[in-house]
Every structure is written in structure tokens, then in C-alpha cells.
Amino acid sequence: MTVVYVLAPDRTPLMSCTPVIARLLLKDGKAKVVRRTPFTIKLLDQPQTTYTQSLTLGVDTGSSVIGSAVADEAGQYCLSL
Hints:
The protein is mainly β. The chain is built from 1 helix and 7 strands; from the N terminus they run E-E-H-E-E-E-E-E. It folds into 2 domains: 4-43; 53-81, no CATH class.
């Protein structure tokens, strides 16, 4: 799953979005690219609400590979790396 990281105009982190939404924001001139790796955009206008939610990070320190995952309060996986 590919995600695009989003920053508010004051550079506080917001919830990530899909590449499609990021592309539309960039095309409409509502955002600009801050970094290419990891791909991060910054909104140019202050959003009406802060789009954040409580997430839990889980890290599995295996013997040879370290895995990580992010889940919401309901236990649904949001992102797995």
C-alpha cells in the first residue's frame, strides 16, 4: 500500500493520503511537494479540521528482519512495512 505523507501549513503532520488524492491536490494548486523520499506534500491552506486519529505502532524485532505495522483503535491494519 502506497501512502503520501501530508503536512499542514505550519508543518504539523496530518493523516496520510493515497497518491490519487495527493495528485489532485497538487494539480489544483492546494499543495506542494516537500520531499520526494518519502513522498511528502504540504497543504497551502489551513484545513478546517485536523485530520488525525489515534494509531498504534507495532514493531516485531525478529532474528533477521524487523517488521512494523500500524493499526487503528478498532484493530484494523492501516499500514504494514
